[in-house]
Amino acid sequence: MDGTTPISEVYPLSPLTAEEIQEAVALIRAGIPDGASARFEMVELAEPPKGVVRRFRPGDPLNREAWVNAYHIDRPGVTRCRVSLSEGKVVSQTHLPDAVPMIAPVEFMEVENAVKADPRFVAACARRGITDMDLVTADPWSAGNFGIAEEAGRRVSHVFCWVRNEANDHQYAHPIDGLNATVDINTGEVLEVRDVGDVPIPKAPWNYDRRYQEVVRQDLRPINVVQPEGVSFTLEGHRLSWADWTLQIGFNAREGLTLHDISIAGRPVLYRASIVEMMVPYGSPDGRHPRKNVFDVGEYGIGRLVNPLELGCDCLGAIRYIDAALNGRDGEVETIKNAICIHEEDMGVAWKHYDFRLDTTEVRRARRLVISTIATVGNYEYGYYWYLHLDGTIEFEIKATGVINTTACEPGKPGPYGVEVVPGVLGQIHQHTFCARLDWAVDGDANTAVECNTEAEPMGPANPYGNAYKMGETVLASEAEACRKADQASHRYWKFKSAEKTGLTGLPTAYKLLPTDVVTPYISPDGPSGRRAGYTFQDLWVTAYDAEERFPAGEFVNASDGSDGLPAFVVGDRDLVGTDLVAWHTFGLHHIPRPEDFPVQPCITCGFKLMPVGFFDDSHLRDLPWARNAASCHAG
Ligand code: NI
């Protein structure tokens, strides 16, 4: 984005450039009360209306606008502003007194430093024999909303603590159980230090860093990905085309990667697709652990936490990267190099048939286009992988890796809410509950959602041999009807059908959402965390399109009360038949840690698939060229 996108290649949905972020910040500084001392939670593209996007042709004038969330550390709330970059003015500003800004990366160390400077905290460490405070770490968790009077109206972080054996040692092998603190992020004031319990701190080192590995296996030879003629996709600014797919890549500080205007064979499928929330509820009632219910998208902004990717390590093959320009807290521009990776992967066999009578074989190889980013949220890494397949399938996969969040236990006594991963180190039971927002446009905006269930016919005159079963469809006609749970017993999936276009056999063209990784929520909807996570209690929500309804746990999630978000969006029970609709899919990981998840967690995955159903008149893969890969060889 910064420096890589000539202005001629800016498209209505291109992310803000570094220059545009600077311009938006300057307009806010001059254009709102006390703007000079404002801090910036978010500067992002204000996406133009769909009609404007669709009418746009390269070279047309663009009215670029930004949303800016500004705040001041000496007063509560957020001022939400709309800024016209084209006209150089603040178009609107609304002060939201109850909104609490997200936690910025720069504040992670500010919180830790405030805690470690507090005499009560130093004394608590000393009581445990820790005297070198440089080795102590305090992870800044969002505080949630637990109705604590002292925290009301403040922007609070709640910390959990660890201690390294020495400077480069793996901190999460040495949890300090029972030591927590709360900090006012804006003032640096330590509101409380809580020091209870005497669970011993496990001391054994468990390092994964290459500097500690005395034995490195020697039995793996290189695998090279060779693309002698280059890649098969083209990237112009943020417009991407590959095979018969076209789409626009977006990025913002909150969601990270976003995909827009996804079409195949010149026909629209999705107007917008992104991961709009992730909540990680931990299952231990002990000590301060009930406060571990973090919303990584809404409380931190996962786009801010994206890593610069490394060629040949994170990404193999012929790679194109896109940089991301984001705002820092004080209005500066922060550019993440190589934030988004685009490449192709061989996917094995696409299809094959051997005709035993003719003794002929036809086989074609599959490949997919991968659009990915990797974010680090404290101890965890989340790899986001969107896959486009040649047969029209769109797939999303999360790869969760990094380090499980640890606490300490008496060796051999982990209790019921976690797994002792190594002696004295407890990995608590938890979930990662994501929400995908899928703004469908299956052959246009007029779409209808249906649920598909398979059931056996009762044995009887119509089913004399007991073999009959059939799939039935139920229209999800309104938002209330479209609050649905997955059901493996009926092989349930949901279909999004065009209200206007039909295929060769006369049925509406459609895409289906295959829910492969739903999670059963175990937090109570009546608890302080469950009240704020209403979206997690359905696997599917469908809403009538409203540009303002963007996030399933609400526009401002940090310390929220749960009154905003999907449960509120569907109260009006809007009609959904043949309309512009948005599907929200809840999915994730039910994570009971294994000893093998420590000291570093091999990737575990979850996701979902979107597949054409009668969208094409045939397999859409007959035209793949027959080819023999010349670089393959007989080994040994
Ligand atoms: Ni996990």
Number of strands: 30
Determine Rg (CA atoms, Å): 26 Å
Can you say what the CATH homologous superfamily of the largest domain is? Copper amine oxidase, catalytic domain
Report the helical percentage.
under 10%
Low-confidence stretches: 1-7
CATH architecture of the largest domain: Distorted Sandwich
Measured by DSSP, the beta-strand proportion falls in: 35-45%
Counted by DSSP, the helix tally is 6
Number of domains: 3
Q: Kindly report the spatial arrangement of strands forming the biggest sheet.
A: 15-16-17-18-19-30-27-26-24-25
Cα-to-Cα separation, first versus last residue: 47 Å
Q: How would you characterize the largest beta sheet?
A: 10 strands, antiparallel
Specify the structural class.
mainly beta
**Shape by Cα distribution:** globular
Mean pLDDT: 96
- Fold-level CATH name of the largest domain: Beta-galactosidase, Chain A, domain 5
Q: Which molecules are bound besides the chains? A: nickel (II) ion
CATH class of the largest domain: Mainly Beta
